[in-house]
Design goal:
Elements (H helix, E strand, L loop, with lengths): L1 H23 L31 H15 L11 H8 L13 H10 L2 E6 L8 E5 L3 E7 L19 H13 L8 E7 H5 L5 H4 L2 E4 L2 E4 L13 E2 L4 E8 L7 E5 L13 H4 L3 H6 L2 H4 L3 H15 L6 E5 L28 H6 L4 H9 L4 H10 L10 H34 L2
Antiparallel strand pairs: 1-2, 2-3, 3-8, 4-8, 5-6, 6-7, 9-10
């Protein structure tokens, strides 16, 4: 008889847990997310209730494994055009696959292939060049404006684009397993021998000489003349080459729901309304499918790199499941001593995050992220890419993100307990 009662009690508990899960299941139906009943991942805990720390041996094993995985092989053999290989990598939800040893050789060609055409950059606020490399591949070239040690303290989006930020963002995106940022690599270009002979008339008429340096100001929203031009050191200009995405994948542009006003004293709605996320989720774009979770991934990414300039975004296609691309990361790594918490607003206002993202952040915590990224960036042709202060900022910001998630989880738990106690 006692055994029957025990079986009955066990079945009743299982039924209650199942019903509770269905009631508390997250409202947003996107990709399958492994979360607890609160819609948030919960780290494993030891007897003290604290997240178990990695042992030193664990850390070294993880660092070694990840460094091996993301280190570039510039001599990897390609059996066909690197541009064709890069084009085939692009899928509906990623720009390149998780395992892509060909990336090293593609970056090598981007950094060395002959330039057969040069023109003013695509539309935008920042100065850049549009280049066609031998073989017909279109790339964007963002020039160097600042020394690596330059610090921007006015606003989180001050200054011109940092070309080195594009390189660091690409590799960080690989390490975070987002794979939504176009391939980027450093390159030094001789303006006199590589650009002027192949430049269009529209571009060449913006060239001028400042002392012994060759300069140009191109064409863009902020390109007003010689006073806004960029100068090489002599004839050699350092910059970043960014691979353009295939034309077969049309890009659709959206206004970012958490965009800033860029006006002093004028707040955006998300800065005034703590329940703003509910209004965002009422839109079919964010209420169904993976878009909101892509956006939150991007918020975490932008916080790590210090990019507060995500006022619009593009998707690879125009379907609800089309991936949220992480393009145009030039306003990153501007101030390693300031952490702009407002960049995380989508995370802490919506209180959801993919389990895979959370788990990845845990794996990269305790200084692992900076060590892996540092190893990868050393391979770039214009290394060093970041200063030591920026590596320290990455680890510090990652810790902040994890603390924010744990705080959100705790707050939800308290609300849940209060709700049950009031019934």
């Amino acid at each position: 008889m006692r055994r029957k009662w025990r079986v009955l009690v066990c079945l009743t508990v299982i039924f209650i847990l199942f019903v509770s899960y269905k009631i508390l299941e997250p409202d947003i139906k996107g990709e399958i997310i492994q979360t607890d009943n609160k819609g948030l991942p919960v780290a494993r805990e030891d007897n003290s209730g604290l997240v178990r720390e990695k042992t030193q041996r664990d850390k070294e094993d993880v660092v070694s494994e990840l460094q091996k995985k993301y280190r570039l092989d510039f001599n990897y053999p390609l059996k066909e055009s690197p541009w064709r290989v890069a084009e085939r990598m692009v899928k509906g939800r990623e720009i390149h696959p998780e395992y892509a040893p060909e990336i090293g050789s593609i970056l090598r060609e981007m950094a060395s292939r002959k330039i057969i055409s040069a023109d003013t950059g695509f539309k935008g606020t920042q100065l850049k060049l549009s280049l066609i490399l031998e073989g017909g591949q279109v790339v964007a070239f963002k020039p160097r404006w600042y020394r690596r040690e330059e610090i921007f303290t006015e606003t989180p989006y001050s200054g011109a684009d940092r070309h080195n930020g594009e390189i660091a963002a690409f590799h960080l995106n690989r390490i975070l397993e987002f794979r939504r940022t176009p391939l980027a690599v450093g390159r030094k270009i001789n303006l006199k021998t590589e650009i002027i002979p192949s430049g269009t008339e529209q571009l060449l008429k913006t060239f001028f000489v400042n002392g012994s340096n060759t300069c140009f100001y191109g064409k863009c929203y902020y390109c007003k003349g010689e006073e806004t031009g960029v100068c090489a050191e002599g004839d050699v200009l350092e910059g970043t080459v960014i691979l353009w995405l295939p034309k077969s994948y049309p890009l659709k542009t959206y206004r970012h729901p958490w965009a800033r006003t860029y006006r002093s004293g004028k707040l955006a709605q998300w800065e005034k309304d703590p329940d703003y996320c509910n209004a965002v989720k009422s839109s079919p774009i964010y209420g169904h499918g993976p878009r909101l979770f892509d956006l939150i991934d991007t918020a975490v990414f932008d916080f790590l790199i210090g990019n507060a300039d995500r006022h619009r975004y593009e998707t690879l296609g125009n379907q609800l499941e089309s991936v949220f691309l992480i393009l145009d990361n030039g306003k990153s790594f501007g101030n390693p001593f300031h952490d702009e918490i407002s960049i995380l607003a989508p995370l802490y206002q919506c209180c959801v995050i993919r389990f895979d993202t959370y788990n990845r952040l845990l794996t990269l915590s305790d200084g692992i992220l900076s060590r892996v990224l540092r190893t990868v960036l050393k391979q770039d042709p214009i290394s060093p890419i970041l200063t030591e202060e920026h590596y320290q900022a990455l680890d510090r910001r990652l810790k902040t993100v994890l603390e924010k998630i744990q705080t959100m989880s705790g707050q939800y738990t308290r609300k849940q307990r209060q709700s049950f106690s009031e019934r």
